[in-house]
Amino acid sequence: MTTPGADANNAGWIVACHIDEIEREDVIRFDHAGQTFAIYRASEDIYYATDGLCTHEQVHLANGLVIGHIIECPKHNGRFDYRTGQAKGAPACVDLCVYPVRVDAGKVLINIDYESADEA
Amino acid sequence: MRHGIVIVGAGEAGARAAVSLRENGWGGTITLIGAEVHPPYERPPLSKVLLTAEDQPAAPLILKNGQIKDYAIKLRCGSPVTRIDRSHHLVSLHNGDVFAYDRLLLATGSTSRQLNTPGVRASNVHYLRTLGEGLALRSKLRPGSKLIIVGGGFIGLEIAASARDRGVDVTLLECAPRLLARGVPAEIANAIERRHRSAGVKLEFDVALRVIKSESGRHRVEFSSGGEIGRIEGDCIVAGIGAIPDTELAARSGLAVENGVKVDAEFHTSDPDIFAVGDCCSFPHALYGGRRIRLESWRNAQEQGTLVARNMLGAHESYQAVPWFWSDQYELTVQVAGLFSEGDETIVRKLGDAQLYFHLDGGGRLVAASGFGLNSAIAKDIRFAERLVAERAMPDRLMLGSPNVRLRSLLASY
Questions:
Q1: Concatenated DSSP letters of A64-90
Q2: Given CB atoms, is B306 within the 8 Å cutoff of chain A?
Q3: Which positions 339-378 of B are in contact with A (Cβ < 8 Å)?
Q4: In Å, how far from its chain's centre is CA A4?
Q5: pLDDT in tens, B178-200
Q6: Model-level pTM greater than 0.80?
Q7: Residue B76: left (phi > 0), alpha (psi -120 to 50), or beta?
Q8: How far apart are CA B368 and CA A82, in angstroms?
């Protein structure tokens, strides 16, 4: 059984889910230490991670639709490229934070220290 | 164009049009005129977080962090437009200002339908459409106070949920035999009613108001219901009994009006230099056989405002988006994609605690889907259904009704 967060191989990497917990071209929510993330599985079986809430209003992106490489906010039509976090038009004009992802032994890991590491 | 573009109405549709004009390359003047004193703000939070937040939240502005300056939008707030001189291409404001236009956009929105019960005065009934009205209502929602809501539509129900969240005693009076008679199927209306009752909201149906008596900040409402006379007292009355498109300026200017400013699918009014979008206009919708409809929702205002800007700059795009709206109440959300009233047959998809219904017309075409439950339970399915409605899909009834059939797989574009 996967215990989210308990299987860090290196600093900052945490287990978000098992690879089969997300269907292709879909997204799930992952909460960790008071933060919420969105974990994506593209149709080509590559996994991605972004912040879990839309930058426009506090709405969980995991309830939105994945169409190709776009996540569509379930409320306000905001669209982002979840590979880069880039906002794709009104009303969202602020990009999403993206996080490095790797797959290890059937588990999807994300590096949540990425932002601070990047600035250091 | 020498004078530029003037937008009358600084709500969602008007503000989005201003932004879209710039994003589509318009380099001339944009004058955005709003009757309210506030810069453009979003209305959905007015019935929710504006009422429930412990501390007064900031106004939810549409144009953020210098966007008005960056997009060089001339914003004129606080003075309504009183006259359009079509032959000279001029608009006059109440404060005496006059602006010349080459192209004019009317995004005047809608106004709250007013109660006309004997005893109603301007001072004793609240409405909720503007930020000013939201702040006034907010100041009345003190824990333990008594609120009387007239109207069991989306506004009234969202206010009821927010008021209960603040510890306010709530009674809601509805003239119809059930909630949301025009908005959602009876199954969803019944589930919404149960949720409100479990939150402690008192509901009365088939209500006809007789008189409102107000004295030193206390109000008494007398009504009849099922042959009985009822009386309730409260500290505050708020009415949410519908909206009327704001067409007065258009009508006075001689523009065609038909349940809203009459426009074609590209949002031209009967004057080739004047366009209209949002709540104030009625337009023919190709999905519904070109029948004229008028919508009052956030997404509609946003998308029409965005599209009309391109047409004002010379494009010829028809608006074909599937109508969609949501209403958040307590932890739950109602969402409807399409026009549920177009359906003749309802297919149920059982989703645990949530409810999802598909509405087919007589020919088996999917014309709408409606859902009620946690956002996480219904949002994706409603969105897929919206795409199916846009595709004019005729999905298999058994597949629609089977929770283990993914709606994505029914899409032609899948």
A1: SEEETTEEE-TTT--EEETTT--B-BT
A2: yes
A3: 375-376
A4: 14
A5: 999 888 999 999 999 999 999 99
A6: yes
A7: beta
A8: 29
